[in-house]
Amino acid sequence: MANKEIKTSIEISASPESIWKILTDFEDYENWNPFITKISGEQRKGGKLKALIGGMKFKPLVLKYDDNKELRWLGTLFLKGLFDGEHSFQIIDNMNGTCTFLQEEKFNGILVGLFAKKLETDTKSGFEQMNLKLKELAEQK
User: What span is annotated as the signal peptide, if there is one (predicted)?
Assistant: First the structure.
């Protein structure tokens, strides 16, 4: 079974609360998010989501929902074990009026090797584009 991990981060001049508010306003994603263009569902640990990410539909399970700190979910493609992704958004308060926003995903499964190059280019680029838009929105408020 293949594994792949992608990590990105960006510093945002905003409070954890204002970043979290944008991050959890799922209805507004289609207006600003270039990577996760649609998302809906139960925002709580154990909740089920529906997401359109990079043109692919997923139904992830929320693993962690910690207000103003972390949202983590597990998505699978078709069957568990083929191509699974544990995606997380973390907000770290730098205690100086800025936060570090971390977005990462750990991929596991039989098909991960086939997609490794695409993950490193397209998926990582999608994370970085989303991070920049989140920064732009949070710093406007």
Answer: none
User: CA–CA distance from 50 to each of 61, 64, 67, 98 (Å)?
Assistant: 9, 16, 20, 31
Whether 98 is in a domain gets the answer yes
14-26, pLDDT tens digit by residue? 999 999 999 999 9
List helix spans (H) across 24-123.
Answer: 29-32, 112-118
CB 61 within 8 A of CB 55: no
pLDDT, tens digit, 9 for 90 and up, residues 26-50: 999 999 999 999 999 999 999 999 9
The CATH number given to whatever domain includes residue 71 is 3.30.530.20
Q: What is the pTM of this model?
A: 0.93
- By residue count, the chain amounts to 141
